[in-house]
Amino acid sequence: MRTQIDKAHDLAERFGGWKDGVLAPGGVKVSDIAAEHGTPFYLYHGEMIVDRVRRVREALGGDVEVTYSVKANPNLAVTQVIAREHLTGAEVASSGELVVARTAGFEPEDIVFAGPAKTDEELEMAVREGIFAVNVESVNEINRLAAVAERHDKNIGVGLRINPAQQLMGSGMRMGGTVGQFGLDEADLEEAVRRTLAHPEHMTLRGIHVYTATQVFEVDPLIEHCRNIFELALKTADLAGRPLEMVDFGGGFGVPYFEKLEEFDLERFGAGFQELLAHYRTDPRLEGCRFVFELGRYLVADAGLYVTKVIDVKDMKGKTFVTTDGGMNHHLTATGNMGQVFRKAYPILNLSRSPGEGEPVALAGPCCTPLDMFGTNIPLADPEPGDLVGVFYSGAYGFSASNLGFLSHPNPAEILIWQGEARLLRPVGKPEDVLKGQEALV
């Protein structure tokens, strides 16, 4: 089993050909980026994202659509890189993400909107934009959406997000097949179809959406789960009395952040799914149907690097502590504070030193809380103040998923490596940014 340091070395090679302490994705040295723009910063590798999107499309087959879950990384330029491939649609979970998707270039007919608590304003925006489907999550939401569509005298596509009776096993986080806030109970499917079809002038039943888990690594249970979704789709088509236009299988392909996790076998899953699709696609109830996988983390996670600078190195009762200028305030997930039951370290390297394992250290951020810790046993090679530390797998759920206002440290920069250039997307914040949008007492 490969260790985290082995995994970090592999990721560095994949990201930018790391050699003798020099990481240069696209030919641009990370140390030069830090010197020009300051630290901390998120660095995204556009070509890696494009390569992953193409690999997924090839594995799943040309008749399967891939939809980018914008929540994973809503940075506009990152979203544009994906949109310009013309190989994907977009799945959004808020009005803000809908703005990003449209600005990035996704067409309305390739956008779906999911989320357990859509406001009337968000439903109105979806209707005005004319997106392909609002994936409704309750019978009440169907009624609300119908009222909005009628008020605007428009027709809106509807996907029924179903919480299936059967769980997907072998996953990291379950959002279906259990009791929770996501989706319609499978027992309510007939009523949901009836309510949707009751508004033919203002609602069109597109199909179903089933997203039950994320961080899935086991291929066979996922294929069986897709088989169950196909059967649920046929049941829905029977209830509707006509073929479906969409079956959204969710996604959740795993990213191996931690030790003892291997890469998701994309090729084996793709082969299994294509075989499954060949069996069901000839059913007249799925004639002309769009088959969709929505992926976010899997498309962008390994194409992102969080870079932070060592501020201090000190010994405390026999333990070496290394503190950096960014931590949980900038990268909540990498410090294990985004709902993880067990806090484990991401693959991390000292980018200012030659490849080597180094002695284990505790790596902490700048926040005044013991929670601000990347890890307590990280083999960091010879850390000294001023060194650059790289946290891999940082392309997803990084900047936007963090509590950036905590302790009022300036925000990190966001930078994209694209076509051999380092393009500044968002500058490093300034201390006075904390006052933006606030009004003082007169």
UniProtKB/TrEMBL annotation:
The keyword Lyase applies. Residues 49-301 form the Orn/DAP/Arg decarboxylase 2 N-terminal domain. Its cofactor is pyridoxal 5'-phosphate. The modification N6-(pyridoxal phosphate)lysine is found at K71. The keyword Cell division does not apply. It comes from the Bacteria. One of its GO terms (biological process) is lysine biosynthetic process via diaminopimelate. GO terms for molecular function: diaminopimelate decarboxylase activity. Keywords: Decarboxylase, Lyase, Pyridoxal phosphate. The active site is at C368 (proton donor). This is Type III PLP-dependent enzyme. It comes from Rubrobacter marinus. The lineage of its organism: Bacteria, Bacillati, Actinomycetota, Rubrobacteria, Rubrobacterales.
